[in-house]
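CHAIN AND CONFORMATION:
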Amino acid sequence: MLTGVAIHDLLDQAETLGEALREARERSGYSLQQFEAHTRVHRRHLAALEQNQWSALPSRIFAIGYVRAYAQALGLDEHHAVERLKRESPDSTVPLQAPTGVDFQEMRRRSPRIVAAVVVLVLAVVVWNVVVRVARLDAPHPSAITQTPEDWAEMADAERAITLGAPLPAPPDQTTPEMYITPGLEAELSGVDPEDASAMAAAVAVNAPPVQRAFNPRGAVYGAPANASRVILQARKPTTLVVRISDSRVLFARAMAEGDSWRAPLATAATIDVPEVEAFDLYLNGEHAGHLARPVMPLAQLNAQAEAAARQAEVRQAARLEAQRAQAAAAQTPVQPPPEA
């Protein structure tokens, strides 16, 4: 009797699959006619399932489908129902096969022979490799040299006799070469040829010194553009340069390598701070002007010096041109012969 069995345990507790399905349908309150409309399976097939009449079903595939639809409509485990169908009604079209496996007794009986064969094979391979390697070795041959050559003995004695000479001087330290001045540059900029003694004397007479060493970029150039700067600082050795503006903000700060330069902007209130004055060359208007006067200097003072130097250069240029025009006029004036007595 399945009176006290829960509906979801009927597949396990019922004696047959048909009994479990019928009991579940009746507990659900379905008649065969109602269940036929619910599952869309003909009532004679539903009755065949409940009565375990597997031969009355059309085919194996349809029988499995009917069992799935029956169990799903009643809320039973359809996979469990199909497995029970397969157990209660095996498929007669598939012939049963004898179980396959390993005959352990036969393996135990034959295993010593197999192990012995493998060991013999490994030993044969090892012996063959040893024989081949020994056969490839060349037998030692007696040397054809009966005595050591004389030059060999001299070379051996020379190698053993090692003499040390006087220590060599240390290599000179790396130095910065002198600035290259393009030939004719001074004459082009100043109009005075350094090789012409008379021209140099005339320049001295009008207080026009020759052009100083011009700025030559030898590294990275930072700061303002070339057309917006009159003051240039060029590092003579690795050093640092810090430029602060009036509100204590840093305008420029960098570790400068030898040859690096910084162009100072115009009309900027700033202060230049360097570790030592000899570390930088100062260029005003592109000409060398020595070094900074102090490690900390206002930029406005340097810009004023550059502007004053530019005005002096203009004055000297104007005086030089006036002197040249006077010389030219004197050369063109004819010399009057002395009056006759």
Q: What stands out?
A: The radius of gyration is 58 Å. Residues 183-208 form one domain. The longest strand covers residues 239-245.
